Amino acid sequence: MTQAKIGIIGGSGLYKMEALKDVEEVQVDTPFGPPSDALIVGTLAGAKVAFLARHGRNHTLLPSELPFRANIYAMKQLGVEYLISASAVGSLKEEAKPLDMVVPDQFIDRTKNRVSTFFGEGIVAHIAFGDPICQQLANVVADAVASLNLDGVNLHRGGTYVCMEGPAFSTKAESHLYRSWGATVIGMTNLPEAKLAREAEIAYTTLALVTDYDCWHPDHDSVTVEMIIDNLQRNAVNAQKVIQETVRRITENPFVSEAHSALKYAILTPLDKVPTTTKENLSLLLKKYL
Ligand SMILES: CSC[C@H]1O[C@H](OP(=O)(O)O)[C@H](O)[C@@H]1O
Ligand SMILES: Nc1ncnc2[nH]cnc12
């Protein structure tokens, strides 16, 4: 199968990477079913990358319907070691304005209905998740943003991303609650992805693209899709520039992340006691420990 060391998951508004050259559409199947769409493998800034539209290229999947395990496993099958997630978010802080970019370093889980582990079925593992983002990769993304001086875009390094279930946006009471927790942005997708990427020993970071002020802000109407569509499109243009610059920087300076050995001390079950089917389904994750 075609290989790529860098993966990109595009969220709302980012369904395609325009600058990708020599594009190949790869239909990947995984032990967890098919991913959200075909993976698009191509060359970006001289490097092979794999792009996946998180909600499908026509945005047909709800956040709760996303095949998170298949998406991450498919990236692993292609050999991805660094994964950049571009995601639309609402802002929970005055200073993070629509069109700004946030590179968060923490998450709060408010999801209710997601499978966010590869383990179970006879194998138990507990990954460390105190630092859910690969800080080295986050720094590369943030430095890429800073170097580009994008018009009207401020960069916010660090911050907490609240991951809610959706698909309805938050109530005002919830939005104020998350603000009282000190959270920075809110979205519906990145936490399960970050957990699964860590279990798959892939370095993961989020490029959060602010589209709105959620519903807490007294001077802005509560968020609706109609009101953010324009920002989604403008963010998608900027995100592609950032991703291209990030890919260039990773290729120039590849690095080893702690995420790349996240399973080393995480698996509790002796591997010779793991049922064969489970071992087969997780072979890509387990093979270096067998
Ligand atoms: C377009 S508004 C809500 C929608 O946008 C975000 O998606 P993604 O994280 O894939 O960019 C948010 O999580 C919701 O799914
Ligand atoms: N306000 C918001 N809440 C949740 N997800 C979002 N994605 C973009 N804006 C959002």
TrEMBL record:
* Subunit field text: Homohexamer. Dimer of a homotrimer.
Q: What class of enzyme is it?
A: transferase
Enzymatic reactions: S-methyl-5'-thioadenosine + phosphate = 5-(methylsulfanyl)-alpha-D-ribose 1-phosphate + adenine
> What family is this?
Belongs to the PNP/MTAP phosphorylase family. MTAP subfamily.
This entry's Enzyme Commission designation comes to: 2.4.2.28
Q: Which residues bind substrate?
A: 188, 212-214
So which domain of life are we looking at? Bacteria
- Residues of the Nucleoside phosphorylase domain: 5-247
- Gene name in the database record: mtnP
PANTHER family named in the record: S-METHYL-5'-THIOADENOSINE PHOSPHORYLASE
| Keyword entries, A-Z | Glycosyltransferase, Purine salvage, Transferase
Give any Pfam family that matches: PNP_UDP_1
Site keyed Important for substrate specificity: positions: 170, 225
Q: Identify the residues that bind phosphate.
A: 12, 54-55, 87-88, 189
Q: Give the pathway listed in the UniProt entry for this protein.
A: Amino-acid biosynthesis; L-methionine biosynthesis via salvage pathway; S-methyl-5-thio-alpha-D-ribose 1-phosphate from S-methyl-5'-thioadenosine (phosphorylase route): step 1/1
Q: Which InterPro entries match?
A: MTAP, Nucleoside_phosphorylase_d, Nucleoside_phosphorylase_sf, Purine_phosphorylase-2_CS
Name of this chain's protein: S-methyl-5'-thioadenosine phosphorylase
- Tell whether Glycosyltransferase is among the UniProt keywords: yes
GO molecular function annotation: S-methyl-5-thioadenosine phosphorylase activity
Keyword Transferase tagged: yes
In UniProt terms, what function does this protein have? Catalyzes the reversible phosphorylation of S-methyl-5'-thioadenosine (MTA) to adenine and 5-methylthioribose-1-phosphate. Involved in the breakdown of MTA, a major by-product of polyamine biosynthesis. Responsible for the first step in the methionine salvage pathway after MTA has been generated from S-adenosylmethionine. Has broad substrate specificity with 6-aminopurine nucleosides as preferred substrates.
**TM spans, by residue?**
none
